[in-house]
């Protein structure tokens, strides 16, 4: 089924209906000595691009928001399973095994790689506007028609393995500032198209998270004003991933505000 204007609008409505989490909220809390925290997901959770890696193969960074939250809150246990490049099947096969009956908190960021993030960005960075838009349209069809069912299945697995956990699903930021010049970056039309693709992806994730009874953290307001092409970017223009500052000042406060009791 092709992506339709009405389908896109419906998904965006889901995103707008989700609870917004203020990026300025405090990320620290009293010692969480009864919290058993597991961090799942892809490179946006593992901290690719944030440096100070504890696991180079998975680009797990000590500067990533899961590690920062654990360091600030001292949970009873912390398992950092997120891995750069992960797709939904990888989370199922290699990450959810960290969950159990004792898990009380789960963070999860996934879906970008499944929708072809890397190849789409290459098309937009190095090909024409029309090629960029075709790549985004192909990704959009997957996001509308296939990703919802795959997320439903994953979320059901997470809930089954961690029945008592609070699950926080973390979305993706807009990558680019829209409008104006971006020296050495994408043209204005491409930047807008990429951000619209992010809107559709986030809307799908937000909708399925809500259906599963999970909390959705929107990465777009968390990084607003700090996208690529801004004067204080928290996303690297080289690898299009959050920097260490992006994790500390963007994702961490938003995640911390979403966790019960913060």
CATH architecture: 3-Layer(aba) Sandwich
Would you give the CATH topology?
Answer: Rossmann fold
Compute the number of strand runs: 7
Poorly predicted residue ranges: 1-30
SSE string: HEHEEHEHEHHHEHEHH
Structural account:
Helix content is about 45%, strand content about 10%. The protein is α/β, with parallel strands linked by helices. It has a single domain (about 30-260), classed as SGNH hydrolase (Rossmann fold), CATH 3.40.50. Helix 5 (about 115-125) packs antiparallel against helix 6 and helix 7 crosses helix 8 (about 190-210). The radius of gyration is 17 Å and the shape is globular. It starts with a helix and ends with a helix. About 50% of the residues are buried. The model is unreliable at about 1-30 (pLDDT under 50). InterPro entries: SEST-like (IPR037460), SGNH_hydro (IPR013830), SGNH_hydro_sf (IPR036514). This is SGNH hydrolase-type esterase domain-containing protein. Keywords: Signal.
């Amino acid at each position: 089924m092709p992506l339709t204007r009405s389908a896109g609008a419906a998904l965006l409505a889901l995103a707008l209906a989700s609870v917004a989490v203020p990026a300025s909220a405090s990320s620290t809390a009293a010692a969480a000595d009864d919290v058993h925290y597991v961090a799942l997901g892809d490179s946006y959770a593992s901290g690719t691009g944030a440096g100070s890696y504890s696991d180079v193969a998975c680009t797990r960074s000590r500067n990533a928001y899961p590690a920062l939250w654990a360091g600030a809150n001292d949970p009873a246990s912390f398992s950092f399973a997120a891995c750069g490049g992960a797709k939904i099947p990888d989370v199922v096969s290699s990450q959810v095994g960290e969950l159990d009956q004792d898990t009380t908190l789960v963070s999860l960021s996934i879906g970008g790689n499944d929708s072809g993030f890397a190849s789409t960005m290459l098309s937009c960075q190095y090909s024409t506007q029309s090629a960029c838009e075709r790549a985004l349209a192909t990704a959009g069809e997957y996001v509308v028609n296939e990703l919802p069912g795959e997320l439903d299945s994953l979320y059901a697995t997470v809930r089954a393995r961690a029945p008592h956990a609070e699950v926080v699903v973390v979305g993706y930021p807009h990558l680019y500032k829209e409008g104006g010049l971006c020296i050495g970056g994408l043209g204005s039309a491409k930047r807008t198209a990429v951000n619209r693709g992010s809107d559709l992806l986030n809307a799908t994730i937000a909708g399925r998270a809500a259906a599963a009874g999970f909390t959705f953290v929107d990465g777009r307001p968390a990084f607003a004003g700090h996208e690529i092409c801004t004067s204080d970017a928290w996303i690297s223009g080289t690898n299009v991933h959050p920097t260490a500052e992006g994790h500390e000042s963007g994702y961490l406060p938003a995640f911390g505000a979403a966790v019960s009791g913060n």
